[in-house]
Design brief:
Layout (H helix, E strand, L loop, with lengths): L16 E4 L3 E6 L17 H6 L6 E2 L8 E7 L2 H12 L4 E9 L6 E5 L2 E3 L7 E3 L8 E10 L2 E8 L6 H9 L23 E9 L6 E5 L5
Parallel strand pairs: 4-11
Antiparallel strand pairs: 1-2, 2-4, 3-4, 5-10, 5-11, 6-9, 7-8, 9-10, 11-12
Length: 219
């Protein structure tokens, strides 16, 4: 099931290109746009479909939730897709996110290590399950306290669905504007979910050059 909890009204406008060569395409996904099509014609508009208008050969390497903005990497050849898939699988792609969360985080850094699995009666929601959940680990750093909220830097070691969103809620500090895992003043009035994929670091699957990609946080 697609990550849709509100009417789908994706943003217009061009997709910023962060990096491109003959093998890879890296873009800055706007919040509110699906990475791939959802079920039904009304969910056909998505990032990969828009990119395919310019790059018909574009191939998916990973995903971001609809309401998350930031760095997304695509392959332009099957070789690059296969090799990037392997890099993601063996956790050789380093990801960095920025989030604003509800409340004042007291510690300066830490790690959330809680196994996650889909909550089947309420899918696509995920939940912590110590018996059947898959290993899920997020390192975090406090960046700044901003009133009754905190700006965080999140570095996931694993790539589970909704991992950062569930882990922040379990930390006691849900991500602002999260339609699934926040409620009350943490959920309402923020204009978007305050989660942005700020950076990727990986070795190019063909040239073997170390690449560091950045997309400035918009909030």
């Amino acid at each position: 099931m697609a990550d849709i909890s509100t009417p789908y009204d994706p943003p217009d406008g061009p997709i910023p290109v962060v990096y491109q060569d003959e093998h890879l395409l890296v873009v800055d996904k706007p919040h509110g746009l699906l990475s791939v099509p959802g079920r039904g014609a009304h969910l056909a508009d998505c990032l990969i479909a828009r990119l395919a208008e310019t790059w018909p050969e574009v191939l998916l390497c990973h995903r971001l939730d609809r309401d998350t903005s930031g760095i997304m990497l695509f392959a332009l050849t099957k070789l690059a897709q296969r090799k990037m898939g392997r890099l993601f699988e063996v956790k050789k792609v380093k990801k960095r996110y920025v989030a604003r969360v509800w409340g004042v985080v007291e510690r300066s850094s830490g790690t959330v290590d809680l196994p996650l699995i889909v909550d089947w009666p309420n899918r696509p929601l995920q939940h912590v399950n110590h018996e059947t959940g898959k290993p899920s680990v997020t390192d975090w750093q406090r960046v700044a306290v901003e009133g009754d909220t905190t700006r965080m830097r999140l570095m996931p070691r694993t790539g589970r669905s909704h991992q950062l969103r569930v882990h922040m809620r379990e930390l006691g500090h849900p991500i602002l504007g999260d339609p699934f895992y926040a409620d009350g003043p943490a959920r309402e009035g923020w204009g978007r979910m305050m989660l942005h994929a700020e950076g990727l670091k990986f070795t190019h699957p063909v040239t073997e050059q170390v690449l560091r990609m950045e997309a400035p946080c918009p909030f």
